[in-house]
């Protein structure tokens, strides 16, 4: 069987790099192209006609739902897997109705990414190997997809959102020293009070180390650094 040719549509260069590396680790797939916005993506998809598109929802010039609608209206023969932080039930329903084969919430781990692509590869191999399916074949294929969706998505505490959380995680992953909430706020452009809430959440989850620095006067300062094990998990938005 020929490699499954896929295109990644993602506006964040760091996430694009990580997703590309993830694809390279899975047999049977060929990265045929990349695009960082909707207009470039549509032109690329039209020109090279890939088998699969890994599509982000939030794009600079459009959104993934609108792009998928355009793909369907042009009757382009391809499948789509969404990789996005958008957890809106309404949006998920709309996208599934347009025929997306999977929808993965960010941040995600490599294992979930690999499962999605391997199950898609199995589906393609089965559909290409026979002209007719038995009910048992279809039950198995549908059952595999259901299994991947049985694990409920991680729910963040009220007031926190995935986009900001991942912005802070990605910044911390580039740092080697302990940082205060003020340092992280300066590095991300976020408010210090906002950053502190996310750092406290990450600390309760074991994602960051906490070091309390006591000065001669004033209140102690909490300093944070990404746990080494968290760096290896490679969870990105």
UniProtKB/TrEMBL annotation:
GO molecular function, one term: phosphorelay response regulator activity
PROSITE patterns given in the database record: RESPONSE_REGULATORY (PS50110)
Pfam families: HTH_IclR, Response_reg
Superkingdom of this protein's organism: Bacteria
The entry's keywords: Activator, Cytoplasm, DNA-binding, Phosphoprotein, Transcription, Transcription regulation, Two-component regulatory system
An annotated GO cellular component: cytoplasm
Protein location: Cytoplasm
Domain Response regulatory: 5-121
Modified residues (4-aspartylphosphate): 56
KW Transcription (keyword) present: yes
Record InterPro entries: 2C-system_Tx_regulators, CheY-like_superfamily, Sig_transdc_resp-reg_cit/mal, Sig_transdc_resp-reg_receiver, Tscrpt_reg_IclR_N, WH_DNA-bd_sf
Name this protein carries in UniProt: Transcriptional regulatory protein
Biological classification of the source: Bacteria, Bacillati, Bacillota, Bacilli, Bacillales
